[in-house]
Amino acid sequence: TIGGATVEQDITVTVQVPVLTMLIMPSGSAVVEMSYTLTCTVSGADNLGATISIEFTGPNTASGTGTSLELPLGSLDLNDAGEYTCTATVSSGLLTNNLELSDTEEVNIPIPSLSVDVQHDGGNTIYAGSMLTL
Question: CA 66, CA 25: separation in Å to the nearest integer?
């Protein structure tokens, strides 16, 4: 109030919400009996004061809170192959609604090749219908 008159003024406040990103990084060799790890990382949520829940789903699973989650697959076997999805839920803090981020990584494990040496005492020819024991 100035001299009995009321003065009103609108003020606009702009808040920039950071861009949130998610990335799945594999490490190791996707080969049978080799060590392999998937790491899911969420970036950009540092100043939101938010809780971040991360979950891996797929042939193997893991869950936790924070900006990063590792899914160690240890010594790989063919059952570890498949599609892995990392989902992060960002909640509370400065946000009025939960945000959900998702990324997918395909783990392909080549089938190891097998070789067999065959020795046959009956000469160089094996005839159809003959028996060969390996």
Answer: 16
